[in-house]
Amino acid sequence: MRKIEQFEPLPVQEGGQRERLSVIVAVYNIEDYLERCVRSLMRQTWKNLQIILVNDGSTDASGTLCDALAGEDARILVVHKENGGLSDARNAGIERAEGDYLAFVDGDDWVDEGMYENMLSALRQFDAPLCVCRYKQIRGKQIEDASTGAALVFEGEEALECFLLEEDEVAIQNAAWNKLYKRELMGELRFPVGKYYEDIVYTTKLLARAGRTVYLDQAWYNYVLERDGSIMGEGIGERIFTDQIPAYEEKEAFLRSIGRTDLADVHRYFFYKRMLLYYTALGKAAPEKRRCFRKRIRQRLLRDRKEMDRVYDCRGAKAQEKRKMKIFLFSPRIYLWVIWMNDRYVVPMKQRIRRSVKKTRS
User: Fold this and answer.
1) Is the distance from CB of 20 to CB of 48 less than 8 angstroms?
2) What is the largest CA-CA distance in the chain?
3) Three-point CA angle 347, 166, 168, nearest 5°
4) Which SS3 state, helix, strand or coil, does residue 30 take?
5) Contact status, residue 296 vs residue 289, Cβ threshold 8 Å
6) Where does the chain have alpha helices with state H?
7) pLDDT at 348
8) Residue 177 CB partners (closer than 8 Å, separation 6+)
9) Of 28, 126, 226, 326, which sits 20 to 30 A from 298 (CA to CA)?
């Protein structure tokens, strides 16, 4: 891995923008957000664009708005189809894409005007088929941006390893929308139709086949959190068991199929962490839902009991997480009590100590 502490992509004048970029926007009942998204694409400094709006059977005015925007800009192509879900809409966009490069934007988000010029410039400079940028987290009027301005150039499967180790300083993650893909890299790969958490396996496979990946620690994508009616705002529900856990299991199976059993165990380690977090978070759910889902999580973890010593010895694993799991397997009630005590007393005490030390040093 090569790191450039402060990286400025070289500007590309319109006359030198030879490669065509197809940006695919899945649209479903987002009339209040769609225009902001599409106009952010229309303003891109990379002008050689095809903007594909896939109206996935919207029942509000989204489809009409798509057509109106297309009337303003010849680069916009509108695809109207019956509702089939996000994966189906993205796949429909891929089939109509004419670009040398592809990107995805969620219709309730928007992008900064230089995003794709910067990312394409970086791909040119480093001769890579995949670029990832950081993103801003938008909560109402609050904007969180952790950009550092650095660039990381990953070789081979280094980006895949970083992704699986879930390193906070590198925001690769599952999402398709903060990435730019060379068409040849994507090849035959498509999103799983009819499933949520569609990015989990998709992103893993692309990172595994990229060969070289550029990560730009600049937040040019604006990701809206907690929109009413969004999938991400629905909390812990049945889809965790019908879609998310099967996707994680498929992801692990893929890693083992390419000979990366070490990374498969890393992935399993973070899967266990996630399941314990869900178990704790269900304390706020309705009683019937809480009992049902907690039982299913415990059954799933008990199934893996004999493999846990191996998994908790993987790279990146922390001893405290293994202790948590041991307590949980012994007694979920004691586990919940320990977590409550930690959140109520231990964490605040550590925060007070850190503030006191910082104050003393200053």
Assistant:
1) yes
2) 66
3) 60
4) coil
5) no
6) 34-42, 62-70, 86-96, 115-126, 158-164, 183-186, 199-209, 239, 245-257, 261-281, 287-303, 308-311, 319-330, 332-341, 347-361
7) 83
8) 103, 104, 105, 106, 109, 135, 221, 223
9) 226
Q: What's the rounded Cα separation, in Å, for the pair 27 and 54? A: 6
The DSSP bridge pattern shows strands 101-106 and 76-81 to be: unpaired
In whole angstroms, give the CA distance from residue 356 to residue 362: 10
Region for residue 57 given its phi and psi (left: phi exceeds 0; alpha: psi -120 to 50; beta: otherwise): left
- Chunked in runs of 10, what are the mean pLDDT values of the chain (362 residues)? 96 96 98 98 98 98 98 98 97 98 97 98 98 96 94 98 92 95 95 92 97 98 73 69 95 98 98 97 94 97 96 96 97 96 84 76 65
The pair of three-digit structure tokens given for residue 284, joined into one six-digit string: 């706020």
Q: Which two three-digit tokens encode residue 230?
A: 């969004």
Domain residue extents for the chain:
2-231, 235-330
Where does 2-231 sit in CATH, by number? 3.90.550.10
8 A C-beta contact, residue 66 and residue 94: no
Tokens describing residue 214: 């550029």
Classify strands 21-27 and 49-56 as parallel, antiparallel or unpaired.
parallel
Nearest residue to 271 (alpha-carbon basis) of 224, 307, 232, 230: 307
Rg value, the chain, Cα: 22
How many angstroms separate the CA atoms of 58 and 261, rounded? Answer: 43
